[in-house]
Structures are given as C-alpha cells and as structure tokens.
Amino acid sequence: MPEANPYIKQYLMAAGPTPIPPKVSQIQAEPILYHRAPAFVAIYARVLDRLKTVFQTQNEVLTFSASGSGGMESAVANLVKPGTKVLVASCGKFGERWAELAEAYGADLVHWDAGWGNRVEPSELEQKLSENPGIEVVYTTLSETSTGVVNDVQALTEVVHNAGALIAVDAVSGLGAVPLRQDDWGVDVVAAGSQKALMCPPGLGFASPNQAALDRAAETAGQGRYYFDWQKTLKGQKKDPPDSPFTPAVPIFMALDVALGMIEDEGLENVFERHRLLGRATRAAVKALDLEIFGPEDENSNVVTAVKLPESIDGAKVPKIMRDTYGITIAGGQNQLKGKIARIAHTGYFGAFDILTTVAGFEMALRELGHDVELGSGVGAAQAVFLEAGVPAGAPA
Ligand SMILES: Cc1ncc(COP(=O)(O)O)c(C=O)c1O
Does the domain at residues 31-264 carry the CATH identifier 1.10.530.10? Predict the structure, then answer.
C-alpha cells in the first residue's frame, strides 16, 4: 500500500466539520471586532435574524459559544430537574448523547433505543409513550449522523404532543440540509451547531425554544445551570439592539453572517433540493457498486450516506486509505459499526463534483483492498443522476 503523502491535496468530505466556502474562511481573517461596538452589533443582529429563517421559526434562536452538544445540553439543563420524567428515543450514537445528558441532570429516564440503522418510528414512539405515562419531555434526533438515518420529526412531534409532552430535537447535522419546519410542525426546541450544513467552523451551539419550552424552563430555574440558562441569553438577544450576556465567538459570527447570506441567496428550498440530489446520486453510486445502504433506503436521507462495506475486506482501512493516500477524508463507522460502514457526507458546501471525487476515491480504495469493483461504475451512476436532473448541482461559490 502506498505511503501516506502529507503534501497531497486535501478534500474534506466528512459530515462535520464540513468544508467552508472561501468567502466564509476569508472573513475570519478580518481584524477582530469589539463585541459591543456598532460594527459587531450589526452583524450579531443580522445573524440572529437570519438564523430564524434557517430554523423556520419566529422563536429567538439562542446562541452559545460551544459545539452542537452545548445547544443540546442547554435543552436538558433548562427542561429537566432531578426526577423529571424524560423519554429519549434514539437510533444511533448521537441519540444516545441525549440519554447521557438526561442522566447527568438527574432525569427519571426511559431510554428507548430503536436500534442503530433504524428510524425512530412514530407508531412505536406512541406505544412507548402509552407504556410510560407521565413523560414530560421527549428527546430525539433529526439526522442521526452515525447511521445516515433521517427521522420524521413532523410525525414524531404530533405523537409527543398528543401524549402531552414537549419535544426537543437534535438537528446538529440536519439543520439546513433537510427540512425542519419548526413553527409549522410545532417542534418545541431545535438544537444545532455551526459546523455542518451552515458551512461554518465549529464553535457555536444553538437552541430555539418556543414559548411552551420557555415556560417549562421557568419552572426549573435555579436547578444548577448558568452559562446555558436560556433566560440569560434570551434577555440579551431580545434587546434592541441585541446584546450578548457573554463574549460571543466574534469570528464565527462574522463567518456565519456570510454563510447565512449564501443560504439566503441560494434559497433555503433550493438548498434542500441540492442536498436531495446529492443524496440521490450517492445512493445510486452505492447501488451501482453492488453495495448496500446501511439502514432504510430513504429519499430523505440526504445528510450522509452510510454504506455497508464488503465483509471480505478490512473495512476500517477504507477511510484510512482514502485519507492517507488520496487526501479524501470521509468517516468510517463509530462504536459497533467500526470497520463495517463508510459514511459519505453531503451536508453543507457540497456540489456534484465533491460526490464524484469521493465515489472515485472510494472505488479505488475498495479495489486496493482486494474487492472486485468495476472502476467508474459508481461514478457513472452518480453522473447519470446529475445529468438527468439537468441542474448544475454545484454548491454556490
Ligand atoms: C446529529 C449530531 N448530534 C450531535 C453532534 C455533536 O455535535 P458537536 O460535536 O458539535 O458537539 C453531532 C456531531 O457530529 C451530530 O452529528
């Protein structure tokens, strides 16, 4: 096997951090702004406003200097006090994080694991909720990045509300890639982060509680939270002009301002459509390679495509060869899926040729590992999807 080449051109094709458009990178090289000066306050106000468009909400999108897990933690710190009855509906690694957080805050936890690679099915959730009366908050995931599964948050929200509970959704990898219409669907809290479909560096966590969630948070006040206290940040963000209770991550706000402007220019629905096309092309490539998608085959799984690797090869070597030999960084499987799947991302600043590059490298890695693959078959299938769609399928420049 060829030696790793540190000078090779790099292609970041993982599901977060994701690649960043050049103008989003460049703005961060500008001189740092004082966070109370008008120049920054204008950016801060614009970002807060633009975030509402992507979250599809009129709620205040609360921003924290943290990774996505910080946004998630805020949704537990503000809704849970010791003994709160909580149900976590998970289907992979990141769903399990909700359970860890709920335990850390002393919840009376029911953890329903739908199984890695399965969806959280609304009918099954309904059953779990009827078996466990008195659940106050349900935590689940929009896009389970460890498996590629995208859940039907609209249907899950209906089930949770019928049971009289609140729902908080981890949309760290899904927000801005697949539709999540927070207000239309009545989702109580959406948590997210800056480093995936929002095309920014890691460092900002978000939570967008609605009034019901804020009311509940008022009931749990004084339960051991400080930085992630929603009221503190809400109070500052609602001022005119808005103000942050803590020093905001100034360069990331500058980056987010540019990135959200790009999403606005492309149009959110067109952004979703681009992700749909990238997902479809990737799945077509996988099938043409005679490999299977891990999990249900789903037209909505447009954040990351998880591919079952042939059992005859050492699967853990696929991402390693791609990164060290070809400079293409994809993700392998996590935990029990290590060596069993490869995850090809298409979330954020991705276009058709990112997918073609990744699939080409993937085919070559399989061939290097001794799998009998017809070079070009996956690439050709993806090309055909892009040509048939008749759209450029490039990410905006
Ligand atoms: C679905 C999902 N939830 C939560 C997280 C955790 O986010 P972070 O690593 O930004 O804390 C990730 C990160 O990959 C994710 O994909």
Answer: no
